[in-house]
Amino acid sequence: MFTGIYYGSYKKGREIIWLTGMALFGIFSAEAFSGYMLPWGQMSYWAAQVITNLFGGIPVIGDALVIWIRGDYLVADATLTRFFMLHVLLLPLAIIMLIAIHFYSLRFPHVNNQDSEELDFDVEAKKYLEGNKVESKVVPFWPVFLSKDFFVVGVALTVVFYLVCFHFDFAMDPINFDPANNMKTPAHIYPEWYFLWSYEVLRGFFFDVAGIAAMDIGLAAFGFANVIFMLLPFLDRNTMHVAPAHKRPAFFIWFWLLLIDMIVLTVYGKLPPTGANAWVGFGAALTFIVLFIALPIITKMEAKCLGGEK
Amino acid sequence: MRELKILAVVAFFTALVYWGVEPFAHSQMHPHVAPADFDFARGDLAYTKEVSQKAEELHTKAKDELKKLEQANAEKSKIADAQKQVASAQKEAVAAQENLVKITKFWKELEPIRTMKGDATKGAETFMAAGCIGCHGVASQSMPAPMDDATASASFGVVPPDLSNAGAIYDKTYLAALIKEPTKALRVEHKYNETKPHPMIQFFGTGGDLNQEIADIVAYLQSIAPIKQLDDKQVYADACQRCHDMKYDKVFSNTDKKALEAYMGTIPPDLSIIVRARSNEYLSTFINNPQKQLAGTSMPRVGLNEKAQNQVINYMEKVGDRKKAEREDLGYKLIGYMVLFTLLAYAWKVKIWKEVH
Prior knowledge:
The structure holds two protein chains of two kinds. Chain A is an all-alpha fold.
């Protein structure tokens, strides 16, 4: 995703690829979350308790919605069976469909490249088919593109099998081997690593502001964080100019700030939110939101600058 | 090579995140505790001292906080809260200090036993005279338990242990301490007092020198302990099975569950996959002194010597991760296959891309 952002691959005709990709990201998150619950260990259970509880923050229908999702007043057997169904059937089906749309939408604007060079794909493809394989700037998906992937998958699977067979606990939370117990809250509750950044945005706002409860501010920020990436093509106001970040000075700084901020959010999302940690979390969550508010302004200025040069 | 540069950047940030959410975060969440100490007198003193120091530190901190508030002319309610905090911290610190004095005295009085030579024959007599077999069985000496499991559960909350192997698996000094004052050795003083006494009665002696008599009993227990090495499962059965189930090995506690719950405050957890839920380091410090990892827990310190404790952990590992050998064997095959696959894929990739570049 960050590669896509860095090279500006989300705009100028490629918006649909970005949108379907983000939809895939969202649905994969749901797939991961529903699967994480299935071992029914302590962390599975309490993570499910916390996350389903979030829906209670939605105005008017919140409380009823939580019960509807859980199928019970608290996370229980009914929740487990429906999450199992979601994990093995409904969500995978949705994922397959979305992947098809995602790939199909790539066929129109075609892929971006490291220099964001605009190519006439029909001309290049013709060159390739005529035998000018070296001169042509495109390659066919099969076998040329995939042959690289086979190699990369081979390397990745070697590492995966090593970890699974000899260090299965390399990134596993031991506490999830304690069976779920709704009478015993674990000392620390946190999601898996890929959700930590948005979890930290949620709990970063830990004090009430002007009579609005901390919980509600957090929820609003959390909602913001989860849709804002989807809107990226529309927040980048320099719509006509596709270039890698190192050729866009202001965007370049914005990009690295965002990356560092997300790493800070991820790490502090796991640490206990006490003392100085709470303030670092607050700062990082605020920075995250400010960065996205600033993006249209930065890119608009960039567009003006470029316009002035021309 | 631009691709390699990009790969290096990605690898760097991935490694940074991994370090942050795994080793770093876990070191922050699970503070380090002193390693297991099988010299129970020394370990106990060190731990009690640490608790007392920590309570004192909290007390000082609370006092500083109060001073700051007073200097800043804070609201009255805030100052009152801080005063309450100081009072409770002070109470804790005083209690911890008193406890330290008591524990120091306890081990000091026991000190002579550590060098004393016990007489097993005399110990056997004292053992009978002291009434140990009123509750305990010693099956290897054809002294069966005086009650069946159900009656024993109802009377004591937990079935008292058979003492046939006690001399082999429990530390000598620990046994002496246990006979002299069970709640101190077990570290369950927070649960029992005069109005709610521990089911094992303190040994006050049969008239002679108390320390000598205790040393004799310990010598007797050691003399009847089997010379042959006990197997891991047997050590577990002697030390843990009266309270804990191990259902993956079809081994269940012989105490009645209801009585046990009333006695411990909760049903002690099944230990089938405890080696996965807790690290080896945690288990070794926890079994050595449960309070160290989980202050206030009702699990007693059982006083296993180093060898017996390792045997118990070994057994838990065998049950909790019983497919380890199979998994590792399969691991070599899988990795071998993938390495071969990767090499072939690379050769293929080079061949195809030669035409394109």
